[in-house]
């Protein structure tokens, strides 16, 4: 599985990395069609 590594010193909290991850795990691979209220479209955070 590919992982996104975040440099916490440079992070401004925009959550674009989470949105990119959610979009990548959908069938359409597009953020324009995401239903953010669906449980499958929640952020996947692994620490």
From TrEMBL:
Q: What is this protein called?
A: Carbon-monoxide dehydrogenase iron sulfur subunit
Domain 4Fe-4S ferredoxin-type: residue ranges: 2-31
Which taxonomic lineage is given here? Bacteria, Bacillati, Bacillota, Clostridia, Eubacteriales
- Fetch the SUPFAM superfamilies from UniProt: 4Fe-4S ferredoxins
């Amino acid at each position: 599985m590919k992982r996104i590594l975040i440099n916490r010193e440079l992070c401004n909290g925009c959550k674009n990395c989470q949105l990119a991850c959610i979009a990548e795990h959908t069938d359409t691979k597009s953020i324009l069609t995401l239903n953010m209220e669906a449980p499958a479209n929640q952020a996947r955070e692994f620490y």
